[in-house]
Input
Amino acid sequence: MIRVRSLSLFVTTCAVVAVACTSWFTSHAGASPASTTLDPVDASIKQSMEQMSDAMKALSKPITPENKEAALDELTKFETAVIAAKSLTPTSAAKVDEKKRPAFVAEFRKTLVEALKFACDAEVAIADGKYKDADKLINNKLAALKSAGHSKFKEEGK
Output
């Protein structure tokens, strides 16, 4: 009886280890050390931008009284991500002439502050029951700002 139980435990453990190893090798296959490690600032900006993008996707549907709480939650996620990103300096700033770099970084920050203002305006519109106004701010103003910001501040391939 003890042998059967030990054998069963051994087989289960081996299966778990095999799955874990397969998963690890699959996720790391062909990855060079340089491609798997991001600069901490780049990683933080990327995480914030992904959070903003996810919130924008969720907010792309029309806001109604039924989904307003979910929309407010997504706006909170968006605003939190903006606040985290606006104090950082994008890597693309290193490619800007040293004399122009402070202005470039200031423009990055101002663009994110503008996004934060639009998000807050959308939040106020939702609180006031002006769902169409909130939709316009999100789908027109924020979407346009996202596009303009990416073309100006995002490095190619990132």
In short: The chain is about 75% helix and 0% strand. Residues 33 and 102 are 31 Å apart (CA to CA).
